[in-house]
Amino acid sequence: MTDNATRLDHVVLWVHDPVASAAFYEKAVGMAPLRIADYAAGAVSFPSVRLNDETIFDLMPFTMTERMTMLPGATESSGHPVNHVCLALPGDDFQALRVRLEEQTVPVSDFSYDSFGARGTARRSFYFRDPDGNVFEARHYE
Question: Distance of CA 92 to CAs 60, 97, 108, 141, Å?
Fold first, then answer.
């Protein structure tokens, strides 16, 4: 992506085991893992998973809290809850995600219908948690 339009670049999630979290996001959510070998070798501080061409999730280990010095109080963000992160998907991908989560025995909520979001009213949505308790909503608009 070469244009400079405003968009979401990354989300940082606090996790207990970045390698296990990356495996969850790969197998259950269908995201591509990034920098796993580099993280395991100690060459980088955290691995990531790719949501799409423009957006990644950084999987930050709780052990990094003492290094959070970019602004006052940043250390206290470790484990601080975010209500949820919403993933908007095409209809087929939305259904495939739900199937993968169920195959991985990840509990999923019932469907919600006609909820408001960034693109208007979403046709259907559901919620699930990752192994560290981060809550995600999956939705589709079509």
Answer: 30, 9, 17, 11
